[in-house]
Amino acid sequence: MIELKFRTEKVSEHITRIYAFSSELMYLVEGNKEAALIDSGSGIGFVRPLIEELTKKPLKVLLTHGHVDHAMGASEFPAESVYISQKDAYIYYETKTFRVAKKAQTAPIKFFVGFFLNLTGRLRWLLVLPSQVLLIF
Predict the structure, then answer these.
(1) pLDDT for 77-113, tens place per residue?
(2) Residue among 24, 31, 35 at smallest CA distance from 72
(3) CA–CA distance, 11 with 103 (Å, rounded to integer)
(4) Residues spanned by the domain of 95
(5) CA 13 to CA 109: how far, in whole Å?
(6) What CATH number has the domain bearing residue 126?
(7) What Rg do the C-alpha atoms of the chain give, in angstroms?
(8) Phi then psi for 31, rounded to 5 degrees?
(9) Residue 30 confidence (pLDDT) above 80
(10) pTM of structure
């Protein structure tokens, strides 16, 4: 069996960029007490072990939208930790048949309008909005 390894790059003290296998990018953002994975990739390979290696903080998985290259890895994470905008959820449900079969939860069940993660240092807040809008201030 071939083991796929994700490549990572430390963007800042709080942000790690994760390169997946179909050219999609994910970001792990660590706050004071919790972390957020922005998008979960295509589901090719298993990203959760990498995330658990990078952080021990409680994790929320925030899907910017439901396209295959952004959301199909969500099934690796507990459903109660996965969030998607209600406006974009239909995309996930239309495309989830393309996801790689995994022994895990099958769908995000929580909806968000925006999500704030309190950070320390230069980055103060992370705001994730639907449809690929990411603001850090």
Answers:
(1) 998 888 887 777 777 777 665 544 444 445 545 656 5
(2) 24
(3) 31
(4) 7-136
(5) 30
(6) 3.60.15.10
(7) 14
(8) -100, -170
(9) yes
(10) 0.79
